[in-house]
Amino acid sequence: MSGGELRHHTVGDPGLVVVGGGVAGLRVVQTVRQEGYTGPVTLLGAEAWLPYDRPPLSKQVLTGDLALDATGYHPASYFADEIGVDTVLGVTATGVDLARRRLLLTGGDDLSYRALVVATGSRPRRLPFVSPADGVHVLRTREDAARLRHDLARASRLAIVGAGFVGAEVASSAASLGVEVTVVETAPTPLVRAVGAVVGAELARLHTDAGVRLVCGKAVTGFVGRDRVEGLTLDDGTVLEVDLVLVGVGVVPDVEWLQDSGLALDDGLACDHHLAAGADAVYGAGDAASWPSARLGRRVRSQQWTTASDQGRHVGRVLVRGREEAGPFDHDLYFWSDEYGSRIQGFGATAGEAVVLARDPAKGSFLAGFRAGDVLTGAVGVNAPREFAAVRKRARADDSWQAATHHLPPLDVPLPAGADR
Amino acid sequence: MTESPTVQITIDITECCASGMCAAIAPQAFEVDTAGYAVVRPDAGRADLDDVVRAARNCPTLCIAVARSGAEIDLFA
């Protein structure tokens, strides 16, 4: 095949339709324009807002370092005039008719497409209990952030269910606002499935060093309070008395609307290594899509902002240049998190055997490499941006353990005994 | 790269992820191009140094380096 679906544009063709106004959708429309596509482009968003930056919602927006409306990526004039993209906001897709190449919308409308990108993202998972009307939050959207910020200013005790990145970031933001915070985690260590027990223990220390109470190995069994939350009950019978709760127990891909479409769903929309969804001219990007990662050797649905952004760009290139020229999608799964003034960075597969490469307690710096045989599969750093960058850059060229880790720029103190370098 | 007598700001554009965070936090020093990537403004030297450092520290990929009188500022000191 020479060129993608959008290599050429003919008059009257309905062009590109992107469902989802998050960063993945934004990158798709930006990239097809950069690649020279001149036909119609429509970006549909279920929310009332033009694409905005979600990562600051748990961090800078809650602490007041960034105003809520400063999270917008570009103003309306950018879409209308600079890149010529029609934005349709507050509209939800309900299905797709693959044979007729039509996207079905709420209210019975539909929209023809020449190429369709599914970038509907994900929504927070909820706890399976009856929840009081007020004081129980999730965090995904601008509205969620505004509500949480409003309640945080009035709260004295916050419980966070789930010690994942969203939970940890909100814990950090709330603690900096003077709120007493308890984080409840079912697993014995925070983020144990994401980064393993060694790094998880380092991340646990960030909480406790900041005076946040971390309760691991206990599950939440219900809420206390009817109109407004008054506490949480745990599976050991204890009750945590709090006046605010944030639930951060992961996300669910927003793909139920595709259930009867004929598109394959497998942990989100099942895409191939080009991010094509198995039907003519349908692609997936972001949290809603899974793809066979060559790097991880399995089907992956990343929930990282950087993956969503890079998938959007990749789909844009595939649409214009074609699959052959654009090549398969590859990503090193870079992520970052800001907690208690510390910067956490990670890349690659970070769930195997972790080896501490460097540590400086005085600076709170820490770097661990993940090892599978003689291969460095990934790394996680805390306050070690130079060392992390060095390992990540080297691993791109040569992922052998020796090549990626020898003669790292040293942190200020010697390595702990037994560290392999 | 923009230079002023005291403050130098450098973006490693190969690592920029186009979050726009720098331009949101320190709009006097940074702006974004049509594809969303960060650009140091020509008059960035006049921006408040605290804002510039805060923007660099909040960059998702930490691709912004800030130096004062030739000495790079440690963002996580």
What does this protein structure show overall?
The complex is a heterodimer of chains A (421) and B (77). With 421 residues, chain A is of the alpha/beta class. Chain A folds into three domains: 16-123 and 253-326, FAD/NAD(P)-binding domain (3-Layer(bba) Sandwich), CATH 3.50.50.60; 126-249, FAD/NAD(P)-binding domain; 341-405, FAD/NAD-linked reductase, C-terminal dimerisation domain (Enolase-like, domain 1). Chain A is 24% helix and 28% strand. Chain A is built from ten helices and 26 strands. Chain A has helices at 23-34, 60-63, 76-82, 142-152, 165-176, 192-209, 305-321, 323-326, 385-397, 401-405, and strands at 16-19, 41-45, 86-89, 93-97, 102-105, 110-112, 115-118, 122-124, 136-137, 157-161, 180-185, 213-216, 220-224, 231-234, 239-241, 244-247, 251-253, 269-270, 282-284, 289-293, 298-300, 335-339, 342-348, 353-360, 365-372, 375-382. In chain A, helix 1 packs parallel to helix 7 (305-321). The N and C termini of chain A lie far apart (47 Å). Chain B has a single domain, classed as Alpha-Beta Plaits. Chain B is built from two helices and six strands, in the order E-E-H-E-E-H-E-E. In chain B, the strands form two sheets. Chain B has a four-stranded antiparallel β-sheet, covered by helices on one side. A two-stranded antiparallel sheet of chain B has the order 3-4. Classes of the chains: A alpha/beta (421), B alpha+beta (77). The interface between A and B is medium-sized, with 33 and 21 residues.
Q: Can you tell me the overall shape of chain A?
A: globular
Query: CATH homologous superfamily of the largest domain in chain A, by name?
Result: FAD/NAD(P)-binding domain
Q: What is the count of structural domains of chain A?
A: 3
Rg from alpha-carbon coordinates of chain A? 23 Å
Fraction of residues in helix of chain B: 10-25%
Reported for the largest beta sheet of chain B, the result is: 4 strands, antiparallel
Radius of gyration of chain B, whole Å: 11 Å
